[in-house]
Amino acid sequence: MDRTLVEKYAAPVPRYTSYPTAPHFNAAVSSTTYGGWLRALPKGANASLYVHIPYCDRLCWFCACHTKQTRRYDPVERYLKALECEIDTVAELCGSRLIIRGLHLGGGSPTLLTPKDMMALGSRLREEFSFADDAEISVEIDPNDMDEARFDALAAIGLTRASLGVQDFDERVQKTINREQSFEQTKAVVDAVRARGVRSVNLDMLYGLPLQTLDSITATTEKLLSLRPDRIALFGYAHVPWLKKHQTMIDDALLPDAAARLEQSETATRLILAAGYEAVGMDHFALPRDSLAVAARAGTLRRNFQGYTTDQADALIGLGASSIGLLPHGYVQNMPATGEYERRVLAGGLATVRGFALSNADRMRAWVIERLMCDFSFSRCELLSRFGDGARGVIAEAELLAANDRDGVFVRAGNRFIVTERGKPFVRSIAAAFDTYLGQGTARHSVAV
């Protein structure tokens, strides 16, 4: 790949797990707004739940999540009591009308919960909401937390998908990011959840980390593949020290440049594809039988705050500090500060502090960006069918983008606008061309490669 081309398209842009992106959420969407949106959800609507546990017993320096380190459990206990109150409040507004198709426990580290608290949380959610018999239950697991009792607790709440962060198995790299986790630990978790009937395992790895080399990426990928996970996420490390102060612990001089990042990504990708996995979107892979690969082939792949997903629910309800939800009306986000979140929900209210009410134009551009991120293309006819004459402006933008392309990254082929093979590594930058909010405000983003 031409270094000049890489540098041209590596400019910082959003990851587009939403549109508009979170920096453009505003305080005009309040708890009152959210309450009205919840009441308006129709009976029988399909929904997914995301529950955020904003605590870790160690802080990984590469992490960009809303979390904090704690060595004591009492802050976690206080938080869980507040979380139960929010669950009750949200359930009173809409719980009896919804069918829950999926539950994701994220963080932070959800697995730092005691087995008793993990099972109590699972029970409380099932008491307040109606879960479909085939609901997917996924949990982010930190191998350093795990013991037999926790594995049993995850089985008790109905775990169907386990997600583990690998990052890199090289010990030097692990030390620079404060994430020491051996291959043996990781394998033990994969074996334990599979022994308890979990049918899907997702492993995350990162490229672009300090001290990473092609050799370390190759070795990590080969070890990861030996575990035969059902899904693999290959993320580029997002270095945002202005947003996450603990990332200042990482020396910028140890980070690879954009060209090296792309070479690391392509090296891992070749190995993963050679092992029989199918590419899903820009940075995920799945075994051909996995539902994610099936959705990618069928053109029904979706993208939300957890990344690529098969979730087709009408609403995503976020629970916990900083959680983001998506309803037909728009986005909502809870108070990130745990103390203020707890105060709000313990008083019987909702914790919403900002969001974004979607216009039809927003929904149209969100659809275009999602299709580019998921399918690397979108249909002119389908866009018109969905959004009518209002789509003609976006089509004109796409025509101009394709006509002016001199790099061979974005073309029109008949009815479709397509990101080419040459352009796929830069799909975030191409999607950004349809983002009318980009550049407004002071938001900063990670590099696009």
Which key phrases capture this entry?
single chain, 449 residues, alpha/beta, three-stranded antiparallel β-sheet, 19 strands
Description:
This protein is of the alpha/beta class. 38% of the residues lie in helices and 22% in strands. The chain has 15 helices and 19 strands. Strands 9-10-8-7-6-5-4-1-13 form a nine-stranded mixed beta sheet, with helices on both faces. Strands 14-15-16 form a three-stranded antiparallel beta sheet, with helices on one face. The longest helix is centred in the N-terminal third of the chain and has 21 residues. The radius of gyration is 21 Å and the shape is globular. It starts with a helix and ends in a 17-residue tail after the last helix. The model has no long low-confidence stretch (mean pLDDT 95).
The average pLDDT is: 95
Inertia-based shape:
globular
- How much is the radius of gyration in Å? 21 Å
Helical amount among residues, as a percent range?
A: 25-40%
Number of helical segments with 4 or more residues: 15
Task: Give the DSSP E fraction (strand runs of 2 or more residues).
Answer: 15-25%
